[in-house]
Amino acid sequence: MWRKAWRWIQETIYFRRKAKKEEYLYRSLRTVMLVALSLALALSLTACSSFSKQSGFLGDYYKNLQPGPEGGAKQRWIKPGVDISKYDKVMIDTPRFYLAANSDDLGRPDRDQAE
Question: Is-contact 65 77, C-beta < 8 A?
């Protein structure tokens, strides 16, 4: 009878150790997977932000773009032969709000929005 009890105690201790070992391995694997997934996500987000996708709006003019000044626009195009020093003012057109494609008015100035 003592042998059976002793055998049962040994088996219980063995299974508990085995369960703890499996739980430790499971937690370790879960941590490694979480770190790997986070790293992959961070790398993919950084890779996406480093490439500028061109929409095609400018057509063939993309080849004329040059790097802009530090702290300014990333790319710019200045018409060759233009003397910018002759200008002392800038005119900005009235902003327009474009609604859905099936609306009656596709573009309205902001002053119309207040009415």
Answer: yes
Q: Which residue has the higher pLDDT, 60 or 55?
A: 60
| CA angle in degrees (0–180, nearest 5) for 96-60-97 | 10
Closest CA to 95 of 74, 106, 110: 110
CA–CA distance, 55 with 87 (Å, rounded to integer): 30
CA 84 to chain centre: 37
**Taking the complete model, does pTM exceed 0.90, yes or no?**
no
Cα torsion angle, 34, 38, 39, 44, sign: positive
With left for phi above 0 and alpha for psi between -120 and 50, is residue 44 left, alpha or beta? alpha
| 6-30 pLDDT, tens digit each | 777 777 777 677 777 777 788 888 8
Residue whose C-alpha is closest to residue 3's, from 11, 15, 19, 16: 11
